[in-house]
């Protein structure tokens, strides 16, 4: 009876057998890569919004403070998305006929809210609280990146648990003086010295219990 | 159950009862009789949950299913969460004071049977999600009962009626107004044909509106009917005081309380307050408490109140009067017909009452005839209670009447054709009117019938017009509490389903401009002493200050009517309202349906309660012992009363008097929601008792009219008592799960709880003995802990529903309850002590113990349950893969597993009801009590961001949902590391003990031993 397989297939089977570990490893590495990739985390993906609101213009250009719109960021878990009223505070006076702002004016006139697309989305089993992070000296930019340079808002950080824990385990690397929390351009001068001091001053705990966020 | 049923006979069981030694506690007759299969049951975690599928699965099908699942499991992970977008919808104009993400609390009031209890409703961005008691309201003082907690589900109930209907056809409100006009035109000439039928009303605004209507339509008559009748109390007090009055009790001032078939801690106006008042005199604190109160309960069925009594006498309903007469006679009141039974007992009570002149009180139950109420008041007069422990005020009702007579008059007039139009505000008389009134046939003679109702129910279906009613959280109103205190009821949300309130319907009848309920209530109060400032204060406080009805100087007549003829033996039937679904109005509330009933722990239906001896007497003998004395299924009997027969499941209850059959009405609804009227073989929705409820025997009857015969077949029952049971006895003997002492014993030995669990190897009875292979945890920050005082727990279930509401706990349905899969994080175990004829009863709420050496933690293969830095056993849902090892390893059996997708993800109206701070769990995930960690975290954050440096959480800033609800303040929660906290103080109480301490789990939840105060003069 003739050989079914050619002699060269031996090599193939050897490679397969000895390479199995590497292949499995490679597959895991790919999966790991995928779940950390923006495809899954949405990092860096700008969302289309009903009104193409530009933080770059309002924050970077005009210098409006974060808290002018995100009023509850110091008091609540939710930073707050401004009511149409807040937009109209200015836009009743300026750019009153701009085509781009028609949805805002309609919203105000018809009393129908604007339906913004959520950019930073955590799963329902994660409970994040803005107020405590702000009050403990974590800058807006630490998580949200240079919002003042974003034309359309996108998620600057991966928002994976690994990423959360990197700071919860070592807050001294990221903490900044409270006065600089809303400063987008803040760069620490000597974080290695200042960090631990601030951790002490603000009584920052390294909370890594599951129930810190999951309940 | 296993097939190899042990064939112990009834005699053997009796012998065992005779064999009870001193302190031995048991949970159920099944536990007491303990077949070998019962032992087996206790050893298992979910004994029936591993039951094979009904039809089985073939090996090949199994392979197919599993391979498909695995293949598709991979596919599921291919979708990125970015696939579905989520919207943020901010306000257009944000309301003042609203901080997005933070709840607001509004004071309002929940009406039940006319009387209101003040509540604080938690609102998340305009959606009410939780009900708490209003600490400023005298009927609540911060406590809540199960009805109040469950009312939030009532609001969002998707089965509520949503449109105006005419015999099932959709109409509009203006159609109704149009149809009303000819009726009103006729009534304006002669109003006698126009009738209102309402429930009890205490609302001043509504009262004034009805009075105006009566003036507008001369001759119009107003009828009232409430199936949970207060007529006996009304008439009894009228006879005693010569007019309709309201009795307000002050149990905080009473050293001695005697109840005559009264369940004052769970029934009637003010029961939440009464529970709290009673508990203030019952709590024992080392070194502080010099004396505690004492309660004697004479009752015809087991009640919550009776379960905490120091002396309980189970007697037949008709005998209560004789005992009341005996007490009265002992106090020198001329009352003939006193019973001669239990003379020692009565003598002891009488002497105790005399010793505590001015600090004792006698309370009669609403189901007892007026004469008993009259007797109770005469006794109160004799013991100086009137004016001290009982205040008599004017009636809180707008128009107190004998409601049975009121309804009878309506039926007579309907039959005579005198009623041209009947407008019904709430209620469901087609379902709940007395059977002999033949309400339906009279009703159908009325040419115009309109019904305002939350549900499209039995009465709505037969009415020309059905108008959907607003829930109390949707509309403006007002009402009085048990002492007459007025609360303005403010809405938390606009009507979800275009409902209308009674005020609007009355407004429509009065004609003229449409007045909103807000305008009506405000206009009434602006005309009655309010101004803008006061109005705002009233709304903010939830009470109108000093609006309680003033106590009047009153003295009860001691002229006692001659005793009624006593029935000569035979069975007596007692018909009472259901402790969970009331008169049937909460039948569509799944939380209340699945709530284990306070005494029997039965869910989803009603049963006929019998004593063991009575069950034997009707022919359930030795052979059926296993069927009767188990907690899984039971036997059926045919109950005949005045010639009408209903088939009912029989349930044998320790502590029931012999020759009494008690059944609760409210079940057996035919319409009014999917849950209320669901029918299947397995869930028949309970038995309708109204067909045997007659106007001359509203609360049952006696004599030859009652026949009870056994019928064939067994019937499954969802009774939760033996679910998740801890084995109270072990090889070493009693494990000391319940520990109790009398107050005298406590004074002699405050450390009575110590050593009760002795006899076990390697006992960890002292807190120091902490042998563990694992490294010790340090708790530098907070150390959360809970202490539950079993002395004051009445088993009322307020905490169970509070927990369900706070933590988004699913209901599972009767079929799943029978499989022991109910999800309540907090269960209340019931323990008996002594003979089944009249045992002592102890209640023990069991949440997660949050052990320091938690057996659940090391066995989780994925670390889904882990120890937090503050001593909580965290449960991380998103990590859980559902191995159930943790639950298997939990000696307290407090973990609950989502065997199916119990949570309703789809019904739109239920989504806004959920607490946004707690994850809604899905299938395959373990869950358990978290000590309300969402509240802990919120309080910690609030403290940390308070001021420049932040601060520590103060004692009392974190309350768990169960603690907050508890009417008797049995639950204390706090930080054990804070030496000034209440919980730290309670941990030092000598009566503090932990469950199964010998396992060295070091639970953070501990108990205070139950302390009772029996009269040394009375034995037994």
Shape of chain B: globular
Largest interface: A-B, 49 and 43 residues
How much β-strand is present in the residues of chain A? Answer: under 5%
Largest sheet of chain A: none
Estimate the mean pLDDT confidence of chain A. 90
Number of H- or I-type helical stretches of chain B? 31
**What's the helical proportion of residues of chain B?**
25-40%
The tally of beta strands of chain A, per DSSP, is 1
The rounded distance between the terminal residues' Cα atoms of chain A is 68 Å
The oligomeric state is heterodimer
Poorly predicted regions of chain A? none
Q: Supply the CATH class of the domain at 164-229 and 399-528 in chain B.
A: Alpha Beta
The strands making up the biggest β-sheet of chain B line up spatially as 26-21-25-22-24-23-27
CATH topology of the domain at 164-229 and 399-528 in chain B, which one? Rossmann fold
Order of helix and strand elements from N to C terminus of chain A: HHHHHHEHHHH
- Beta content of chain B comes to 15-25%
Textual characterization of the structure:
Chain A has 215 residues and is mainly α. Among the domains of chain A are: 13-41; 73-79 and 120-212, no CATH class. In chain A, 42% of the residues lie in helices and 1% in strands. In chain A, helix 5 packs across helix 6. Chain B has 1020 residues and is α/β, with parallel strands linked by helices. Among the domains of chain B are: 164-229 and 399-528, Rossmann fold (3-Layer(aba) Sandwich); 245-394, 3-Layer(aba) Sandwich (Dimethylsulfoxide Reductase, domain 2), CATH 3.40.228; 572-716, Barwin-like endoglucanases, CATH 2.40.40.20. Chain B is built from 31 helices and 41 strands. A seven-stranded mixed β-sheet of chain B has the order 26-21-25-22-24-23-27. A five-stranded parallel β-sheet of chain B has the order 9-8-16-17-18, with helices on both faces. Chain B is globular and about 90 Å long. Classes of the chains: A mainly alpha (215), B alpha/beta (1020). At the A-B interface, strand 1 and helix 7 of A face strand 2 and helix 29 of B. Strand 1 (116-117) of chain A pairs antiparallel with strand 2 (87-88) of chain B.
């Amino acid at each position: 009876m003739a050989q079914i397989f050619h002699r060269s297939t031996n090599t193939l089977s050897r490679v397969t057998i000895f390479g199995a570990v590497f292949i499995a490893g490679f597959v895991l590495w790919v999966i790991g890569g995928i779940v950390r990739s923006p495809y899954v985390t949405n990092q860096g993906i700008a969302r289309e919004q009903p009104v193409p609101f530009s933080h770059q213009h309002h924050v970077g250009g005009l210098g409006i403070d974060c808290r002018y719109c995100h009023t509850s960021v110091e008091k609540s878990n939710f930073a707050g998305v401004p009511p149409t009223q807040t937009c109209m505070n200015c836009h009743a006076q300026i750019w009153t006929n701009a085509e781009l702002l028609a949805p805002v004016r309609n919203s105000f006139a018809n009393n129908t809210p604007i339906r913004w697309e959520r950019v930073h989305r955590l799963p329902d089993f994660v409970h994040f609280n803005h107020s405590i992070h702000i009050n403990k000296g974590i800058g807006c930019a630490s998580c949200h990146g240079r919002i003042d340079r974003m034309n359309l808002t996108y998620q600057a950080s991966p928002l994976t648990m690994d990423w959360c824990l990197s700071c919860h385990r070592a807050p001294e690397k990221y903490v900044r003086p409270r006065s600089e929390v809303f400063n987008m351009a803040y760069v620490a001068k000597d974080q290695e010295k200042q960090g631990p001091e601030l951790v002490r001053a603000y009584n920052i705990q390294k909370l890594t219990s599951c129930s810190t966020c999951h309940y | 159950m296993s097939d190899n049923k042990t064939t112990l006979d009834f005699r053997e069981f009796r012998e065992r009862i005779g064999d009870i030694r001193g302190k031995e506690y048991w949970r159920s007759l099944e536990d007491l009789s303990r077949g070998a299969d019962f032992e087996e049951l206790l050893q298992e975690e979910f004994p029936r949950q591993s039951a094979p599928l009904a039809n089985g699965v073939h090996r090949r099908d199994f392979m197919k299913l599993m391979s498909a699942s695995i293949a598709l499991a991979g596919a599921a992970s291919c979708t990125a969460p970015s696939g579905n977008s989520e919207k943020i919808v901010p306000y257009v104009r944000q309301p003042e004071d609203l901080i997005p993400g933070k709840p607001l609390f509004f004071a309002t009031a929940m009406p039940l049977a006319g009387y209101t209890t003040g509540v604080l409703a938690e609102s998340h961005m305009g959606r009410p999600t939780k009900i708490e008691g209003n600490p400023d309201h005298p009927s609540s003082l911060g406590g809540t009962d199960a009805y109040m907690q469950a009312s939030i589900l009532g609001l969002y109930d998707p089965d509520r009626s949503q449109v105006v209907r005419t015999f099932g056809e959709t109409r509009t409100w203006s159609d109704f107004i149009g149809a009303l006009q000819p009726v009103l035109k006729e009534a304006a000439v002669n109003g006698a044909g126009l009738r209102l039928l309402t429930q009890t009303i205490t609302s001043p605004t509504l009262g004034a509106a009805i009075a105006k209507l009566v003036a507008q339509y001369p001759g119009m008559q107003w009828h009232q009917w409430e199936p949970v009748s207060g007529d006996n109390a009304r008439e009894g007090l009228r006879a005693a005081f010569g007019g309709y009055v309201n009795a307000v009790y002050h149990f905080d001032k009473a050293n001695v309380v005697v109840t005559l078939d009264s369940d004052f801690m769970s029934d009637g106006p003010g029961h939440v307050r009464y529970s709290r008042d009673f508990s203030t005199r019952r709590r024992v604190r080392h070194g502080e408490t010099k004396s505690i109160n004492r309660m004697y309960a004479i009752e015809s069925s087991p009640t919550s109140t009776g379960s905490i009594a120091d002396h309980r006498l189970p007697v037949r309903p008709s005998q209560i009067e004789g005992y009341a007469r005996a007490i009265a006679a002992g106090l020198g009141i001329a009352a003939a017909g006193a019973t001669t039974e239990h003379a020692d007992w009565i003598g002891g009570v009488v002497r105790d009452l005399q010793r505590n002149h001015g600090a004792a009180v006698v309370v009669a139950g609403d189901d007892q005839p007026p004469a008993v109420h009259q007797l109770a008041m005469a006794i109160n007069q004799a013991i100086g209670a009137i004016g001290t422990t009982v205040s008599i005020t004017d009636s809180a009702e707008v128009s107190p009447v004998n409601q049975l007579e009121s309804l009878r008059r309506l039926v007579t007039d309907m039959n005579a054709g005198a009623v041209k139009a009947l407008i019904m505000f709430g209620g469901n008389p087609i379902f709940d009117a007395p059977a002999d009134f033949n309400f339906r046939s009279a009703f159908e003679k009325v040419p115009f019938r309109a019904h305002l109702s939350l549900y499209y129910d039995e009465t709505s279906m037969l009415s020309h017009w059905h108008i959907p009613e607003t829930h109390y959280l949707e509309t403006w109103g007002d009402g009085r509490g048990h002492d007459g205190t007025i609360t303005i009821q403010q809405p938390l949300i606009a009507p979800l389903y275009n409902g209308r309130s009674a005020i609007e319907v009355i407004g429509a009848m009065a004609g003229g401009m449409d007045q909103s309920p807000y305008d009506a209530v405000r206009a009434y109060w602006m005309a009655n002493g309010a101004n803008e400032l006061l109005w705002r204060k009233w709304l903010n406080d939830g009470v109108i200050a000093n609006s309680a009805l003033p106590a009047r100087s009153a003295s009860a007549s001691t002229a006692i009517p001659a005793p009624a003829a006593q029935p000569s033996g035979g069975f007596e039937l007692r018909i009472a309202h259901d402790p969970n679904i009331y008169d049937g109005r909460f039948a569509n509330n799944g939380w209340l349906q699945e709530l284990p009933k306070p005494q029997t722990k039965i869910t989803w239906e009603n049963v006929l309660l019998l004593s063991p001896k009575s069950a034997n007497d009707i022919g359930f003998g030795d052979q059926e012992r296993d069927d009767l004395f188990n907690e899984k299924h039971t036997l059926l009997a045919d109950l005949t009363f005045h010639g009408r027969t209903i088939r009912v499941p029989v349930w044998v209850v320790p502590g029931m008097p012999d020759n009494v059959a008690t059944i609760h009405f409210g079940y057996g609804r035919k319409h009014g929601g999917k849950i209320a009227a669901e029918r299947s073989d397995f869930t028949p929705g309970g038995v309708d008792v109204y067909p045997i409820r007659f106007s001359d025997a509203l609360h049952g009857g006696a004599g030859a009219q009652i026949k009870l015969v056994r019928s064939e077949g067994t019937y499954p029952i969802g009774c939760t008592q033996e679910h998740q049971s801890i084995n109270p006895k072990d090889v070493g003997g009693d494990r000391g799960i319940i520990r109790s002492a009398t107050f005298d014993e406590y004074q002699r030995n405050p450390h009575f709880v110590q050593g009760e669990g002795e006899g076990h190897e390697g006992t960890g009875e002292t807190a120091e003995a902490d042998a563990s292979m694992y490294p010790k945890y340090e708790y530098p920050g907070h150390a959360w802990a809970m202490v539950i005082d079993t002395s004051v727990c009445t088993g009322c279930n307020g905490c169970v529903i509070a927990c369900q509401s706070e933590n988004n706990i699913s209901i599972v349905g009767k079929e799943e309850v029978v499989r022991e899969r109910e999800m309540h994080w907090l269960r209340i175990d019931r323990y008996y002590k002594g003979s089944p004829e009249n045992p002592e009863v102890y209640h023990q709420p069991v949440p997660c113990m949050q052990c320091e050496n938690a057996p659940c933690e090391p066995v989780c293969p994925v670390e889904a349950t882990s120890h937090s830095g503050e001593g909580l056993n965290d449960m991380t849902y998103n990590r859980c893969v559902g191995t159930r090892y943790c639950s298997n390893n939990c000696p307290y059996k407090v973990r609950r597993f989502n065997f199916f997708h119990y949570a309703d993800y789809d019904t739109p109206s239920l989504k806004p009801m959920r607490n946004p701070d707690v994850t809604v769990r899905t299938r395959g995930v373990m869950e358990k009590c978290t000590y309300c960690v969402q509240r802990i975290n919120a309080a910690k954050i609030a403290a940390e961001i308070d001021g420049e440096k932040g601060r520590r959480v103060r004692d009392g800033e974190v309350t768990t949902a169960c603690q907050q609800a508890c009417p008797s303040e049995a639950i204390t929660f706090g930080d054990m590391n804070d030496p000034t906290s209440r919980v730290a103080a309670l941990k030092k109480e000598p009566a503090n003990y932990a469950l199964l301490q010998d396992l060295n789990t070091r639970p953070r939840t501990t108990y205070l031993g139950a302390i009772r105060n029996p009269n040394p003069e009375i034995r037994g």
